[in-house]
Amino acid sequence: MIKFNNVWKIYKIDKEIEYQALKGVSFEIKEGEFVSIMGPSGSGKSTLMHLIGLLDKPTKGDILIKGENIFNLNDDQLSTLRNEFVGFVFQQFNLIPKLTVLENILLPTIYARKKLDYDPKKKALELIKRFGLEGKEYSYPNKISGGQQQRVAIIRALIMKPKLILADEPTGNLDSKTGVEIMNLIKNLNEKEKITVVLVTHELDIAAYGKRMIKIRDGKIVKS
Amino acid sequence: MSYIFFVVKAAIEDFKRNKTQTFLTALGILIGVFSVVMLTALGLGLKKYIGDQFSALGKNTLFIAPGKILSGGSFNTLSSLSTIKFDNRDLMRLKRLKEIKGISPTFLKQTTAKSENKSEETTIFFASEVFFDINGFKIKKGRFFDKNDIDKKAKVVVLGPKIAEKLFGSIELAIDKKLSANSVNFIVIGVTESKGGGGFGGPDYDSYMFAPYTTGFIFNPEKNYSRFAIKFDDNYSISQVKEAITKELLKRYDKDSFSIIEPGDILSAVNSIFGVLNIVLVAIASISLLVGGIGIMNIMFVTVSEKTKEIGIKRAIGARKNDILIQFIVESTILSIFGGFLGLILAFLGTLFIQRFFPAYIEINSVIIALVVSSAIGIIFGVFPAKKAADLEPVEAIRHE
Questions:
Q1: Residue B227, SS3?
Q2: With the C-alpha atoms ordered B371, B377, B382, B387, is the resulting torsion angle positive or negative?
Q3: Residue A208: pLDDT over 80
Q4: Strand pairing class (A212-217; A34-38)
Q5: B1, B309, B315, B317: best to mutate for the A interface, most A CBs within 10 A
Q6: Are residues B261 and B69 in contact, defined by beta-carbon separation less than 8 angstroms?
């Protein structure tokens, strides 16, 4: 489903100095997998996540999504893929503070170009119920707990029925008990709903939820 | 379409959250639209006022004045100073023309009119009986002077309603009363209906007095006339009449020393002056619209940098560049239309207030233009900030704190 082929990401810091965040990374993630990408900070895992999430393009090398090289896609096509194919779960939740829980969850459907074969609001309410957020539909993000916010973010990631959930340190801002709850939710999505999950973390016990681990250090994969 | 609705709703909620900032930003456009609409209203009012003065003039009328007053539809200010003076010989010659049905020589006398217990600065308009018809006067009380009064050099006077009230307390009380001007005693025989106006360079007929020109020779021993008002036979076209008059007057004067004026000529000259005046006023007022637009652009740049994170999140969940572009253009346009709308309301109120002493009015055109211009400003000045927002790199934007 996702294939990286000798991918480099080089940042130019100024005219002479450049920083190689990724140095020729190759791997493949198949449909239905639960892959943890693990590495210390500065290892290039965030860069890797941005590339998988189509938020950025590599300096060289090829990234294939569903067999399509992303260099051949224009900005609108990439936006559509982010909208329909990927669901993001971030460390800082990244909810929009001035929108209610329900509005945040429905935001991706506002940007949807395809006609949805379901009622997004109905689905949102259903997911809210399933994730134990009943009664919080019209609350604002700053009025609910961190664990609840992350659940909202997960529902937002699910609302477009994505093929891939991309979770970037999803427990990083949560206490360990809540973190376990969130990880179990994500694990369930992979096991019961067959959604491919890519988890980026620096914590071994979180990475352990994955069925396969890609270790990265200094921009290179050390174990796949 | 539903996206536009979503964006409009979100923008309005944003503005509600920042009421003060929204109002201050819209203030620039408010002032701009207010001044444009207000100045246009004043210009139109002035034009209408003067137009009304001329439309009161009767049909088939012409005026002959010394000097070259009008040339090519505009007032000629330079040569109107050097003038000839018309006299009885001109009157007799013109009277003989078959095209002319009635002619009134006119001249003015500034004076102080005294009733029994009041005195008032005024102007006496000396003319013949046809003058009232030519200028569209109507009688309110009493009568106009007639041919008989002219022949007898009767010391009778017709008053404008304002001067009648000032001297005698009311229009009714003025009739048959005596008044004196420069020690000459007149009897008031009539009061005209109000013609309105005055005060803006045009004659304030309501404060004038009218008397037979023959009587006026007391004040004008040279028997000079400053103007002729003419009613012509409608079997002749206006150009035929002008030609006949010109031919007659050229026997005595050269062609640059007199003017034949149609009321329409004056009207079109007035219109052309006010057309230019209006453009100049609107151009000046438009500068404030421009400044308002720049204010909106400035605040939109601030908004874009405040919303960088939000833009990043939206891009991550699938918003296209265009979606972001539209969001910010809609925001700036709403701001601008809001300002324009407030400016318009204020201009309406201002016009209502001014109408108490000046005939200002707002045309539907200025309303449409004000709203179109303010939305155009919102779009034009919103494009650069919106483009900046749309072109943010998703990665950079979402990392922004």
A1: strand
A2: positive
A3: yes
A4: parallel
A5: B317
A6: yes
Residues in B closer than 8 angstroms to A108, CB to CB, are 317-318
* Interchain CB distance below 8 Å, B310 and A96: yes
Say what the alpha-carbon torsion angle A142, A148, A150, A156 is, to the nearest 10 degrees.
-90
B314, B17, B375, A109 alpha-carbon torsion, rounded to 10° = 30
Q: Which of A12, A110, A142, A155 should we substitute to test contact with B (largest number of B Cβ atoms within 10 Å)?
A: A110
CB contact under 8 A, B313 and A56: no
Say what the ipTM of the complex is: 0.94
Q: Among A34, A33, A90, which Cα is nearest to A208's?
A: A34
DSSP letter for each residue of A72-89: G--HHHHHHHHHHTEEEE
Q: Is the pLDDT of residue B75 over 60?
A: no
Nearest of B167, B156, B65 to residue B113 by alpha carbon: B167
Residues B30 and B346: beta-carbon distance below 8 Å: yes
pLDDT by residue (tens digit) across A179-189? 999 999 999 99
pLDDT digits (tens, 9 = 90+) for A115-171: 899 999 999 999 999 999 999 999 999 999 999 999 999 999 999 999 999 999 999
CB contact under 8 A, B6 and A110: yes
Write out chain A residues lying below 8 Å of B306, CB-based: none
Could you tell me if B196 lies within 8 Å of chain A, comparing CB atoms?
no
Confidence of residue B81 (pLDDT cuts 50, 70, 90): very low
DSSP strands (E only) in B146-266? 156-159, 178-181, 184-192, 208-212, 227-232, 258-261
Does B398 contact A55 at a Cβ distance shorter than 8 Å? yes
- Nearest neighbour of B317 by CB, restricted to A75, A98, A107: A107
Predicted confidence at residue B117, as pLDDT, reads: 86
Q: What is the pLDDT of residues A97-116, one digit of tens each?
A: 999 999 999 999 999 988 89
- Crossing angle of the two packed helices B321-354 and A75-84, in degrees rounded to 10: 100
- Region B254-262: mean pLDDT is 83
| pTM exceeds cut of 0.80 | no
Token reading at A216: 């990265």
Interval B319-350: pLDDT, tens: 999 999 999 999 999 999 999 999 999 999 99
Tell me whether B322 touches chain A (CB under 8 Å): yes
Rounded to 10°, the helix A176-193/A146-158 angle is: 20
> What is the chain B residue with the closest CA to A158?
B317
Contact B320, A108 (CB under 8 A): no
CA A195/CA A186 separation, integer angstroms: 9
Burial class (CB in 10 A: 0-12, 13-18, 19+), A64: middle
- A53/B320 touch (CB, cutoff 8 Å), yes or no: no
Residues composing chain A: 224
CA nearest B308 in A: which residue?
Answer: A96
